[in-house]
Every structure is written in structure tokens, then in C-alpha cells.
């Protein structure tokens, strides 16, 4: 699997999957897993509040959801006998969660962390020795089955256990395997990347208003243009440079705009943003220790 970093799409994960914590990211993973064909009855989720549990049950019929405020043992009950346990609580709570579920984890349960910045070593120290662990870096387009996910296996994870973790994500996007030291770079490009695209759409809409367009019209044009360009990029074999050149007629309006972007240093600005995101991810890892 590591020879080719891209993991091919796999059938729905076998066995039961537990999602511990179901905020926006873990719900995106959950939604993608269900959309890929995994039955809701084979998935258990835990949340803090009963109201959130009811919300998820209504959104995903057949899903078992346990609320910690009603049952303090919710997380332990969810992981008992699970094939894969996806940890989606906030980074500051990951170590405590690992310690809490450690006594009831089956030896073969693959623990998958969705929390940013918490290292494999930190989690392995809080889990039973030899527990298979995979650290992930997904992004929110999993919700629309166009996500990108980086996976880094722990020291005890086998190829088949890594594949089991990949199966949780594979139906909802592209899964790649990277060394853990590259996860911060993955986070800077694909983890934070959707926000960059949304930021671009905001800036395009604002530019349209500056050119005299109605605000609602400018937003519609910017939104649909960015979304449509994304779909073109999603086509097999698509090359962003080739697509850009195809729209850029010599001495035309687009060529003039691209020249202005280059003159303003837009590529360097984007690179600086990615470096800042990567650096902050490393800082968070050190802070969480």
C-alpha cells in the first residue's frame, strides 16, 4: 500500500464502526461512510448531549447514538466489539479518551484519530501496547463524497488494519498514505484547503461588487464558477495548469488577469499561507505533547 500513496476505493468496512464524538468532521466521515453503502445499523456514534443524539438519529435513520450526559459509559459501550473506532473529540481531549476506552478495546480494534495535531506517539502511550492505530487528516468535502484524506499508520498497524481504516473514508473521497511527518503538510493543503477555495469565492464576489455588480449576483457567479471549476478538476487526469491555459487566450482578458495575479505575488501568498498552516499544526502538536 505504501508503494502507491493513493489507496483505491474499497468495499464498505466490515464489522461495526464506532464514532466517538460527532462534531462537524466526524459527522462528515460518518455521512460519507453511510453514503458509500455501510448500513446505519452497523454504526454507533457517541455525543455529549441528548439533543445532539436525537438530531443525528433523525438525520441518519437506524443509527445508534449514545449521549454521555445520559450514560457516562457511552464511549466504552460504543467501542466494545467494534472493528474500527474513530476518535473525533477535540484534540485536547484525545489522550483522556484513549485512556478511558483502553480497558475495553479488543486487541484487533483499529483506532483511527481524526483529531489534528495529536501525534501517534502521544496516543500510543495512552492505549494498550500493540493496539493498531491510524492517524488521519480528512477534510469536510467528505460530506459531498469529494474529500481528501491523509492516513499515517502507527507502529503496530498492519497493512490490513491500515486498509480497514482506509475503508472508513474511501467511499467518500481520495485516501492517501503518508509518513506521519508529512501530515502537517497534508493538513495545510487539503485539511485547510476547502477554506482557501471558499475564501477565493468570497474575494471574487467582492471584486464583482467592486466592478458594479449586484452583491447577490456577484456571489452567485463566484460560487458557481468555483464549484464548476472544481468539478472540472475532479475529472480523471485533469491537470490544473492545462485547464488554466485552455481558458487563457493569448492577449485576452484572462491572460491579463493572471498577469496581474503574478505581479501581485499570488502564488507566493498562497505558499506563505500553506507554510503558516503547517507551522501552526506543528505548534499545536508540541502544545498537546
TrEMBL record:
Gene Ontology terms, MF aspect: pyrroline-5-carboxylate reductase activity
The keyword Oxidoreductase is annotated on this UniProt entry: yes
Uppermost EC category: oxidoreductase
Annotated ranges, domain Pyrroline-5-carboxylate reductase dimerisation: 180-284
Compartments, as annotated in UniProt: Cytoplasm
All residue ranges annotated as the Pyrroline-5-carboxylate reductase catalytic N-terminal domain in the record: 16-116
Pathway per the UniProt entry: Amino-acid biosynthesis; L-proline biosynthesis; L-proline from L-glutamate 5-semialdehyde: step 1/1
SUPFAM superfamilies in alphabetical order: 6-phosphogluconate dehydrogenase C-terminal domain-like, NAD(P)-binding Rossmann-fold domains
Reaction it catalyzes: L-proline + NADP(+) = (S)-1-pyrroline-5-carboxylate + NADPH + 2 H(+); L-proline + NAD(+) = (S)-1-pyrroline-5-carboxylate + NADH + 2 H(+)
EC number(s) recorded for this UniProt protein: 1.5.1.2
Gene3D superfamilies on file: NAD(P)-binding Rossmann-like Domain, ProC C-terminal domain-like
Coiled coil regions, renumbered to chain: none
UniProt keyword terms in alphabetical order: Amino-acid biosynthesis, Cytoplasm, NADP, Oxidoreductase, Proline biosynthesis
Pfam families: F420_oxidored, P5CR_dimer
InterPro entries linked to this entry: 6-PGluconate_DH-like_C_sf, NAD(P)-bd_dom_sf, P5C_Rdtase_cat_N, P5CR-like_CS, P5CR_dimer, Pyrroline-COOH_reductase
DNA repair found in the keyword field: no
UniProt xrefs under NCBIfam families: proC
Function: Catalyzes the reduction of 1-pyrroline-5-carboxylate (PCA) to L-proline.
Family: Belongs to the pyrroline-5-carboxylate reductase family.
Name of the protein this chain belongs to: Pyrroline-5-carboxylate reductase
This protein's encoding gene: proC
